[in-house]
Amino acid sequence: MDDNRHYYERPNFWPRLFGVIFIILFVIAFRLELFLLLRLIVAFFFFLVQRPFAPPSPYTPQALMILAVNAILFVGCYIIFLRWISLFVLPVQNPNERWRVFARLFEYIFNMHGPAVFVKNGELIARKKEKEEEGLDRVRFASLAFMDLASAIVAERGVSAAQMNQPIKKTTSEEHYSPIRALGPGVGFLESGERIQGAIDLRKQYRMMKNVRGFTSDGIELETSVNTIFTLGQRPDVITVVDMKSTGLSVLNMDQDTKKIFAIIDEIDEEDKREIYSKIQNQRSIRTNEMAYEHPGSNNPPFPIDENHIIAAVLSQPRNTRDGKLEKWTELPNRVAVSVLLDELSRVSYDHLYSLDRPEQECFLYDKFKPAFKCKVKNLGVMAYQFVQRKDGNPPVEGTLFNAEEYWIWEVQELHNPRPLRDRGIKVIDVDFSDFKPIDGTIPEQRFDNWRSQWQKRAELTNADYDLEVMRIRNHARAQAQREIIYNLSQIFKLPGYTQEAIAIRIFQALESAAANPATNRLLPRDTIEMLRNFQRLLIVDDKNGQISTQNLPPADDTPPERLG
Question: What would the pLDDT profile of 395-413 be if each residue is shown by its tens digit?
């Protein structure tokens, strides 16, 4: 960062300039004493080489005493001056840090300092010159790290890069330092031999993975984009857990302002449930009288520092299976979300995701599949819970008010069940994916054709059932009409004293009356009705006076007495 500055703008220019000025003033002020010291050194050299020399001046011991005292005062004043300057060089707070700044400034003047790095938004920024000079001969010197409010680093002592993916070693009581530690925002002092293994951006992180492809249970390949919002710089969300007896542990969702319970949802993993049950039964949790949301705390830093989470995120970096290289911790949440999505997608069919038979207000993809996916991914990150239970033993009811005086309340506990994101201290804020798009563009058309063919088949089967029912009704009505006609004809044949002509007329009148009935007319074929009309025209003739004539009837064998109808 100082490479492009002028020499007088660099931090070590002014301390060195003042040091040179003090030395010049010292030489001018004690030039006679220095001259006597020089004569003493020359005489001593001649004595060693056995050459004649002038004896030192009797004033020499006094001059040496004066030089020694003033040199000590000079060095002391210079140290005091550096100590005074160190109070204003860096924004430190405690005496220990002030002494560290003084030691760093002293090393910096004599070019004995280690590399100074700046960390901005999780990115290391070092001066090019210090990067080039950094080597094995400089490992013994300490260095500085300047971090903004959104950054943190992990420093490790005497560990090579090949060991970065190993678990953290616990220090014993005999050790005076931890080989791995995390440094938060501000000024960080690196001890001798320590190296920065990684930097962390404490702000919210957003990652998107495009062109994610997976298969449904019926073998249809779909494509989507998965995006994740996560962080290492936020405290875990606290969920309220209650034992519902019949369904087990569930999450109690309520409005923090009105204290109204609006939902009781079973969205806790089975392994997390067992951990909660174990802590409650073993009385590892302490009861309290306050809910977590009642006292959120004040004067909190913008990005809380959890040393264990930061160390785990840096040292437990994921390894890419394609090339075997270590990736940043920011790539892991999205990969875990993609893995969960593909696993959940393989359990459902495409028709189940986008059912065309459901009402518009119901959709399995948005109402059940996506919320379950989000819940499962969030449960893989850091989470905390607070267990509550009614004092009367009854489970809470949705729509009622939450009264803390009616509940036993336990303190907030963080879940420690192993999870890929939880082990690295990553909190998943939100996760989502875009609409699925079939790779084969003909899938929607084929699916619509399949759906339409099914409904056409159902329609044809329904129409066939209706046609069969209509045929049954018509046959039944036709049989009923036939029975009525037969009955009427049988009554005509039972009438006594009628001639054959009269009986024939009666029969044709009965047939004509049945054919003229609208109910019977619809049941008889058109040829039958036309045939009855032809018989009527051939056999029965009306005269001008309206009398019926039977002249076209054939002669009868017997002629009974004629009766008038």
Answer: 888 888 888 888 888 888 8
- Determine the 3-state secondary structure of 277 from DSSP: helix
For Cα atoms 90, 92, 94, give the angle at the middle one, nearest 5 degrees: 150
**Which residues partner with 408 through β-bridges?**
389
The C-alpha atoms of residue 248 and residue 243 are separated, in whole angstroms, by 5
305, 182 contact by CB (below 8 A): yes
Token code pair at residue 355: 């059912």
Largest alpha-carbon pair distance within the chain? 198
Structural domain boundaries of the chain? 1-111, 114-201, 205-440, 460-549
How many Å is the Cα radius of gyration of the chain?
A: 51
For residues 152 and 200, the answer to whether their CB atoms sit within 8 Å is: yes
Q: Is 47 helix (H, G, I), strand (E, B) or coil?
A: helix
By C-alpha distance, which of 6, 309, 302, 4 is closest to 147?
302
Please, is 239 exposed, middle or buried when counting C-beta atoms within 10 Å of its C-beta (0-12, 13-18, 19+)? Answer: buried
**Residue 458 Cα to chain centre, angstroms:** 42
User: What pTM was estimated for this model as a whole?
Assistant: 0.65
For the chain, 565 residues long, the average pLDDT of each consecutive 10-residue run is 56 69 81 80 78 74 82 81 75 75 73 75 68 45 76 76 39 54 84 81 91 90 94 86 85 86 88 88 72 62 80 78 76 92 91 70 80 92 90 86 87 88 90 89 74 80 86 79 72 69 70 66 65 62 48 44 39
**Could you please report the per-residue DSSP string of 125-189?**
EE-HHHHHH-SGGGTTS-EEEEE-TTEEEEEEES--GGGTTSPPPPP-TT-SS-SEEEE-SEEEE
Give the end-to-end CA distance of the chain in Å, rounded to a whole number.
133
Single-letter residue type at 353? L
Compute the distance between CA of residue 313 and CA of residue 164 in angstroms, rounded to an integer: 11
State whether residue 285 is helix, strand or coil: coil
Which residue, among 163, 157, 153, has the nearest Cα to 142 in the 3D structure? 157
Tokens 């005489």 -> residue:
43
Amino acid letter for position 498: Y
Q: Which two tokens stand for residue 271?
A: 């392994």
The neighbouring-strand residues paired with 119 are: 124, 147
Coil vs helix vs strand at 390: strand
- What phi and psi values does residue 76 have, to the nearest 5 degrees? -60, -45
Structure tokens, 486: 């037969």
